[in-house]
Each structure stands twice: as structure tokens, then as C-alpha cells.
Amino acid sequence: MDLSDLLSSEEVYPSLKAKSKKHLLQEMSRIAAQKTGLDQRDIFDVLLQRERLGSTGVGQSVAIPHGRLQSIDKIICIFARLDEPINFDSLDDEPVDLVFLLLAPETAGADHLKALARISRLIREPQTLDKLRGSREQSALYSVLTEASASHAA
């Protein structure tokens, strides 16, 4: 699975403002609701429910909030680069500044895991993270995300 299969340039946000973890989840839910037509509160509730199981702040200042929704038929990915890092209760206690939101249909077991694995491989590359943090343009961020994804898929 390639990240370009999940993410278009329109789902890349180069400068998102959030003051807290809850505020970030609300903003990401709002964006996802606009993109999908789903109810913002339903998306937020699913994300919050997942966070209660354990933080999706995976380390290296990256978070991958995710959840499954009955009302969608394909995996949705949204990437945001935050204006200012925020506390996210991450595994390494570092503030988060790069966020991948992933929403999947309830029936997308293996595909949901593949998408999470794809993002996990991407963020293991320090050079990719540096490029994402150094880019402020939507098209540049999208290029970094999809180039890195394509090179890992090869």
C-alpha cells in the first residue's frame, strides 16, 4: 500500500493551529468531516475513544490518531504539520508537530493495519521527518510524503 493511495495533496495541511491534544483532535475531526461529509462529533468520539486506550503519539514528535467508522467505505488519511508542537502524551514524552489522521471502515481490518504500517515505515526515516518539518508548502509536503512512500514500496 502506497501513501499516495490514501492521501491526495488536498489532504495535506502545512500549517495547522492547535493548542492541545483535544483541540488538535477536534480540528482534525472538523477537517475530516468537511472532506467526507461525516459527522464531526462521530469522528471526534472515535478518535477520543482510541486515545483512551493509549496515546497515538508514537514518538519522534509524530502522532497517528486513528479509528474505525461504520459510515465510511474507504480509508481516509489526512496529514497536518502543526504551527507549534503540542503535548500529546506521546510514548517518548516529546511534543507532537506532525500528525497523520487515519480513518478506516469497520470492515477494513488488514487494510487499516497496512496503512498504519505504511505510515510507521515512513516516520522511521529521520531525513523524511526533517524534510517534513522544513517544508511549509502543501505541494512540497505532499511530494516528500509520496516520494518517501514510493521509495519504500520499491
Structure notes:
The chain is of the alpha/beta class and 154 residues long. The protein has a single domain, classed as Mannitol-specific EII, Chain A, CATH 3.40.930.10. Helix 2 crosses helix 3 and helix 4 packs across helix 6. The longest helix is centred in the first third of the chain and has 16 residues. The termini are close together.
Task: List the SSEs and their pairings.
Elements: H1 3-6, E1 12-16, H2 21-36, H3 40-53, E2 57-59, E3 62-63, E4 66-69, E5 76-86, E6 96-105, H4 109-123, H5 126-134, H6 138-153
Parallel strand pairs: 1-5, 3-6, 4-6
Antiparallel strand pairs: 2-3, 5-6
Helix pairs in contact: 2-3, 4-6
Label this structure with key terms.
globular, alpha/beta, 154 residues, Mannitol-specific EII, Chain A, 23% strand
